TrEMBL record:
PROSITE patterns: MFS, SUGAR_TRANSPORT_1, SUGAR_TRANSPORT_2. One of its GO terms (molecular function) is symporter activity. The chain crosses the membrane at residues 56-74, 86-106, 145-163, 175-196, 258-282, 294-316, 323-345, 357-377, 398-418, 424-445. Residues 2-449 form the Major facilitator superfamily (MFS) profile domain. Keywords: Membrane, Sugar transport, Symport, Transmembrane, Transmembrane helix, Transport. Its main location: membrane. Pfam families: Sugar_tr. This is Sugar transport protein 7. The lineage of its organism: Eukaryota, Viridiplantae, Streptophyta, Embryophyta, Tracheophyta. Coiled coil: none annotated.
Amino acid sequence: MACLVAAVGGSIFGYDIGISGGVTSMDPFLEKFFPVVYRKKNYKSKNNYCKYDNQGLAAFTSSLYLAGLVASIGASHVTRNYGRRASIICGGISFLIGATLNASAMNLAMLLLGRIMLGVGIGFGNQAVPLYLSEMAPAHLRGGLNMMFQLATTLGIFSANMINYGTEKIKPWGWRLSLGLAAAPALVMTIGGFFLPETPNSLIEQGSTDKGRQVLERIRGTRNVDAELQDMIEASELANSIKHPFRNILELRNRPQLVMAIFMPTFQILTGINSILFYAPVLFQSLGFGGNASLYSSVMTGAVLCLSTLVSIATVDRWGRRTLLIGGGVQMIICQITVAIILGLKFGDDKALSKGFSVLVVVVICLFVAAFGWSWGPLGWTVPSEIFPLETRSAGQSITVSVNLFFTFVIAQSFLPLLCSFKYGIFLFFSGWITIMTIFVYIFLPETKGVPIEEMILLWRKHWFWKKVMPPLQTVEEDI
């Protein structure tokens, strides 16, 4: 129950990803805030790929992620010193304020201020929720329970797509309803945060060992928690002896975790998934679909993403992380190349896709989204949240969130101009990155399923590559 309530924090992230793409394709919204794009869209831009190429419109989507990036650094301090719950509550309140500002926006400045407050909420939520889930879950269920965050994210995207499909018909204020309903998951997250128990790791880190034991006994359903509690106490003593976790994370013994904290979220975004989820209606309209058809297609991709995450939850603790990441990577490469070939041969600057090829593009994009949903989507968050020792866990999660939000910002800001410049080559661009990241996982990521968080450090010392990078054990003990 604790994991379910906490995971709602993922739905605010997903809701925003889904809602912004639909809203930016609605005529009343464009007419009020982005009249240049409105004219270009409705008076037939000569180049299909460039209809929506506007830096102001991209800034509406991307400003949130820049704010989230900055907020996630501050959230690390709150999460470490005041607990995971405090960050979850802060995130919910910020998101509520942002949703209110956006729904009542009268000008672009008010709209962007609302987006920035939403970004602060996402920075705090994405920092605290995966950590909370990893620390509450028993080792043998950690993968599945941690993926509740991604499941909530995908449900948020799907709900947003469904809401956009309905509000698009309510003119001229349907977009206000779409943006304002972001308050619903934020309210659940904020109120739920007050009722959640703090994680045992966090309580022990703050000196409340007895309370930590009580929570641990309650969530494990047994009084026999001595071994796990002792691991947490030892990790906490080490964590409290380290005053500068961000400086500590740069040391050689933490190098494998740091590399994963940077590259896993980078690669997760460079799959190209966010460009499809943010701009699904815009993308489908650029490919010649009508307004309703484009929103309908984005509802389909949202539903596929949601269902495929369930596959990951069911298999991650049985098949392992590596198998899903590599398998998903191969499927995504095939799908991206297929879409590029169809668009390259059958679609151009001024010619639309035939009905048959339009259906085929949607099917292949759905297969791509499904592959992401059972591999890099959830595991891009799960792996970094479970590999850090307690003393650098908050700092490590902050780096993961910051990198994720930075690349989300970059892709959100640059996708429309890239689509205009690269045309169908945009799909080949992303497939190249997916090839690199699949090889990266095969070579550098050890299997983490079933390994208790406190024993994760031993995994890196057994890995053929990382054991050469990490200093000898005696040196680490002397440093400590």
